[in-house]
Write a structure and sequence with these properties.
This protein has 16 helices and 17 strands. It is an alpha+beta fold. The strands form four sheets. Strands 1, 4, 5, 6, 7, 8, 9, 12, 13 and 14 form a ten-stranded mixed beta sheet that branches. The protein has a three-stranded mixed beta sheet with strand order 3-2-15. It binds 3-hydroxy-3-methylglutaryl-coenzyme A.
């Protein structure tokens, strides 16, 4: 049975911090953000927004765009790592907000939960909901999977430059107009790790930045190796001698904690795949140096990171490799378009991968590329840690969903925050009744209960 994404909507808060202002305030070279990490702007939530609002706004948009009523939705899942409660699931808040528009009790028939595994949980939610449809349980209804997060790090920390906020709502069904998932190839890798985690009660994560970068690469590579095995075993892809699985994937979307992580990950995966092919000899000649090997090739991530000679040589190798015509060709044709939206918005944790997907669709369509039949690969990563690699093919009716996509229009009139305003919001100095923007046709947070019997109860309103 065909299962896939029928349509998707993006909601991003309109406040942002500019990379240059931020760099000046923190005494960092702006080029580190703009060229080194690929960050121009970071979206920031207003004082009357939380991750549930972002999620509900994305859901409302996708339902309104497709003229769906609650009866058309059988499952509503929220994947997030910005949970509001240890027990009450975020999809219940979202249903409460949607029922303000569609009527009390209108989603009563609908099921769903909140899913958590850092940034990868949205991909698990898509997979599980696809299987609900494949199992024939959906009775023709859609599953609505929404990924929503606020990426927030400590003031002055090295992660602070990689913040952002937003949500992507995706409609799944058995006759998708946008993308049909390839069956039986979804692959995962998992390991108990502490690269990035947020203990109970702490608003910001504890992060081992360089460790997390390397773990991301290793986990995604492991999942890709298994994807390759499954794709060959199921005859989905039959690489000929000297070819690799990546030759058969037209677009690669990767989890983007910052835009340049997509470049980094592509270089790592392509090196891993090409190394075993005859083309590698020519690449090594173009690069002009041998591929470096760590002193202890079987060592831990810590030992590799501590091997400064290897790290420097490897950075030099990657820099030269990224300049080869062969890599440039893969980068421009398969990845470049997915990175554009992330530059303007920042890390959306669970939603970052899908913002990248959305970015590819919009910017390739604008270039006039015919996407029908193109295979999209997805490399999802969540700290803690797990990766998932899967793929799908663009459907003949995709233009119905893609033709009106316009990130600039959807972002609307954005307000650039002064560093002072940004820090006030960051440090929770403003209450929901002190927003910096006038909300229009969107859900907002009105109040959070403080009395013992109603502590933590959140009230929302649809601002007309
Ligand atoms: P850092 O130590 O601040 O930066 O950490 P750096 O020294 O690694 O520099 C970053 C890049 O800028 C480097 O490029 C520098 O060369 C370059 P690269 O070598 O990587 O190609 N650079 C410059 N370029 C031009 N002009 C300059 C300049 N200076 C330096 N003057 C880090 C960066 C991302 C680690 C940090 O910001 C951080 O800890 N962020 C949060 C964690 C994170 O995003 N990790 C990513 C992988 S884990 C993940 O994706 C999961 C996550 O989304 C959470 C989840 O799953 O829930 C985070």
């Amino acid at each position: 049975m065909a299962v896939g994404i029928d349509d998707l909507s993006l909601y991003v808060p309109r406040l942002y911090v500019d990379a240059e202002d931020f760099a000046n305030a923190r005494g960092i070279d702006a080029a580190k953000l703009q060229r080194g990490l690929g960050i121009e702007q970071m979206a920031i939530v207003d004082a009357n927004q939380d991750p549930a609002c972002l999620a509900a706004n994305a859901c409302l948009q996708v339902m309104q765009k497709n003229k769906l009523s609650p009866e058309d939705i059988g499952r509503l899942y929220v994947a997030t790592e910005s949970a509001l409660d240890e027990s009450k699931a975020m999809n219940s808040y979202v249903i409460g907000m949607l029922e303000q528009v569609y009527g009390s009790g209108s989603f009563q028939h609908c099921g769903g939960i909140e899913c958590k595994f850092a940034c990868v949980s949205g991909s698990y939610a898509l997979y599980d909901n696809s299987n609900w449809i494949r199992a024939g349980e959906s009775e023709g209804k859609h599953a609505l999977v929404v990924v929503s997060d606020i990426a927030k790090y400590d003031l002055g920390s090295s992660g602070e430059v990689t913040q952002g906020a937003g949500a992507v709502a995706m409609l799944l069904n058995d006759s998708p107009r946008l993308l049909e998932f390839d069956p039986k190839v979804t692959s995962t890798s998992i390991k108990n790790e502490y690269d990035f985690y947020r203990p109970f009660g702490k608003e910001t994560p504890i992060v081992h930045g360089q460790y997390s970068n390397m773990l991301y690469l290793i986990q995604v590579k492991n999942a890709l190796v298994d994807y390759e095995r499954k794709a060959v075993a199921t005859n989905l892809i039959k690489p000929k001698d000297g070819e690799t699985i990546l030759d058969y994937i037209d677009y690669i979307n990767m989890h983007l904690p910052y835009s340049n992580m997509g470049k980094k990950a592509l270089a790592y995966l392509v090196r891993h795949e090409w190394r075993k092919t005859p083309r590698w000899t020519k690449i090594i000649q173009s690069v002009g140096m041998d591929e470096p090997v760590p002193k202890d090739p079987r060592g831990t991530i810590e030992s590799v990171l501590a091997d400064t000679e290897f790290m420097q040589k490897d950075a030099e190798f990657t820099k030269r490799f990224a300049k080869t015509e062969e890599y440039q060709d893969v980068y421009e044709s398969k990845v470049a378009s997915s990175l554009l939206a992330s530059r303007m918005i920042g890390n959306l944790y669970t939603a970052s991968l899908y913002l990248g997907f959305r970015s590819t669709l919009e910017f390739e369509f604008q270039k006039g590329v015919d996407l029908e039949g193109k295979r999209f690969g997805f490399a999802s990563y969540g700290s803690g840690s797990s990766a998932m690699v899967f793929s799908g093919v663009i459907m003949p009716e995709y233009k119905e969903a893609v033709k009106d996509m316009n990130i600039e229009v959807e972002l609307g009139q954005r307000k650039k925050l002064s560093l002072d305003e940004y820090e006030q919001i960051h440090e929770n100095k403003l209450t929901p009744d002190q927003p910096l923007l006038n909300a229009q046709k969107e859900f907002i947070l009105v109040d959070i209960g403080t009395k013992p019997e109603s502590r933590g109860e959140r009230r929302y309103r649809f601002a007309e």
